[in-house]
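Ticket #4471: structure output looks truncated?

Reporter: J.K.
Steps to reproduce: submitted the chain below (180 residues) through the standard prediction queue, then opened the result file.
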Amino acid sequence: MGIGSILLVIVIVFGIGILVNIPIAKSRLEQEKKLLGDVKIIDTIPSTHIGGHPFIKSNSFVKLQTTNEDYIYIDVSIPGKVDKIKIPYTDIIECRYQTQENITKDVTVARLLTLGVFAFAFKKTNSSTKGYLILSYILDGVKVDCVFSANNTQKLNIFAFNINKTLILYKNGNMKPQIN
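Returned output as attached by the reporter:
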């Protein structure tokens, strides 16, 4: 088999891959339109779910999405299937951005139980600037603390700020999200 034949096979396989992907992409768009209806996605942040949500695997890729309605989405879609977890603003307790340095400096309950009062003397120190979004909300009557990380930590910080701004507006009686 010559180099020309190998190149032809590669081109054919690549072309078939593209043709197979087009219907999957169309199907995904149709599924998303059907799921969303008139709801518009305002902002999307690709991120990694570090842990905390009982129905999302740790270290899986998700998209955090704000909408023009009274909820946000955690998009856990996989190729060929659209799946979004809807979180109403009324269920959100807190949304905060923290750096890894802030998280590791905190004295945790586990460290306190392990080291007792000495946990305060042996605070962890770490100079990393990795950022995390911590979303606390009520899911079926139970408090859930989800932790997400993203490559764009500034955008993650702005996302947390916008969620908190909207939560304040909700508490003041403005029931429509005002996210930029």
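Triage note (M.O.): checked the attachment and the full token line is present. The helical segments are 3-36, 100-105, 109-115, 153-171.
Status: closed, working as intended.
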